[in-house]
């Protein structure tokens, strides 16, 4: 049984018409990875306005750990909308806000009193986490890492890598942000093993407290347990422990940015659990709301209480509707066996792509659970990123019925963010369509090597 059902060319005529309206009415700065206009979404399948059905391996950039329009999420939202849409947490109290805070306080790592602040999206939550850390420490300095993505506000743009895509033309940026190398094992410098590179990055983190900022001026270190936009690179556990050690020694706040890697994505409720490290503050969003706008900062109560009364908040942060969705999501994620499905997703993705090393220009296959990426390079020795190949493959995959997005500092990775409960046959069908798209893109991109010229034979006398 196939689940992809394409009735028109892609994009179809109705999608094209809607795309023309978007181009005329919407800022051209808003990107769009797939030329598809969605009409209906259920689970791991999306149907467009032309009646074409696609397998969704992008999941709204990781928003859909429980799948599109999960019936329990829909029911919770509908029930809440019928009662009160948004009286505003800055004006009144309502059941959803403390109820969600209580759940997050109980579920996030750490056996200590916790509190939570809710917001609308990831960038807003990261910015709040930094503000809270600064209020707690009385310091300004923030350490982040190359390849990181933390958002699009002015402060979080300063914290984010990938200048050309996210930052060009938008400066000046917030000060007191210090960016250090990240120990990506695949891209260890020439002459260094992966372990030596991790060792050096740990040393450099210590050295930065002399070369860049004194520990007494450091408010926080912000780390993604699995780097998201940077290419789905799991942070080495040793590096994570070094961050914890430095924060303990200096009194800085360790902030785990789990916007993309959290809420069950890696097979644990939070990806940092794989390393056995407990952060002081943890930021969650994306899959927490299953498509509704919500984010959270959760952490040590004494740190969360540092801002003065009225110092944090937002008009829409923690709306009753989004809280209802998030509570339903957490119920689903914590059901026995649900998170374990992420292991099947990782296994299948590796089963499909590993045998293609050599046939396709695969540099690396990495990730954890349902957060996986395949990186493509022009040369396996130099590891030169092949951005154009991946850019060409994405629309070809869409044309075969799969929604897909890129990732990586060099935009040379395909990222896979399926719903955790995607059936294996649907996952394999989608992945095989992506493989066919890569084969086609690679066949078109490979340089034609001319046949070796035959030596000229001397004419006999």
UniProtKB/TrEMBL annotation:
It is an enzyme of class 2 (transferase). Its EC number is 2.6.1.19. InterPro entries: 4NH2But_aminotransferase_bac, Aminotrans_3, Class-III_PLP-dep_AT, PyrdxlP-dep_Trfase, PyrdxlP-dep_Trfase_major, PyrdxlP-dep_Trfase_small. Its cofactor is pyridoxal 5'-phosphate. CDD domains: OAT_like. Signal peptide: none annotated. Pfam families: Aminotran_3. The keyword Transferase applies. GO terms for molecular function: 4-aminobutyrate:2-oxoglutarate transaminase activity. Keywords: Aminotransferase, Pyridoxal phosphate, Transferase. Belongs to the class-III pyridoxal-phosphate-dependent aminotransferase family. This is 4-aminobutyrate--2-oxoglutarate transaminase. It comes from Deinococcus oregonensis.
